[in-house]
Design brief:
- This protein has one helix spanning 45-58; strands at 5-12, 27-30, 35-42, 62-68.
- With 82 residues, the chain is α+β, with helices and mostly antiparallel strands.
- It has a single domain, classed as Alpha-Beta Plaits (2-Layer Sandwich).
- It has a four-stranded antiparallel beta sheet, with helices on one face.
- The longest helix is centred in the middle third of the chain and has 14 residues, at 45-58.
Length: 82
């Protein structure tokens, strides 16, 4: 696997957007089903594991980690909230 690489990390519940900086600038996208998607580029495997540790430390339920070749198109995300 080569880095940097785009990821979508899905977590249970809606995470407030003020956490974006703490999650290394990942975009926070609220989905209608009550899930939050964290989307962005991860520079290396250590950074990915760092993000996952932050989710664990907050006690948030991790649903999925989905790698992709490039950042997803905006149309791939059903609802963005600010």
């Amino acid at each position: 696997m080569t880095y940097p690489r785009g990821y979508t990390i899905r977590i249970q519940g809606h995470l407030n957007r003020h956490w974006a900086d703490w999650f290394d600038g990942m975009e926070i996208i609220h989905q209608p089903d009550g899930v939050t998607a964290l989307e962005g580029v991860v520079t290396d495997q250590a950074s990915l594991f760092g993000l996952l540790l932050k989710i664990r430390d907050l006690g948030i339920s991790l649903i999925a980690v989905e790698p992709h070749e490039q950042s997803p198109a905006p149309s791939a995300c059903p609802q963005r909230t600010g």
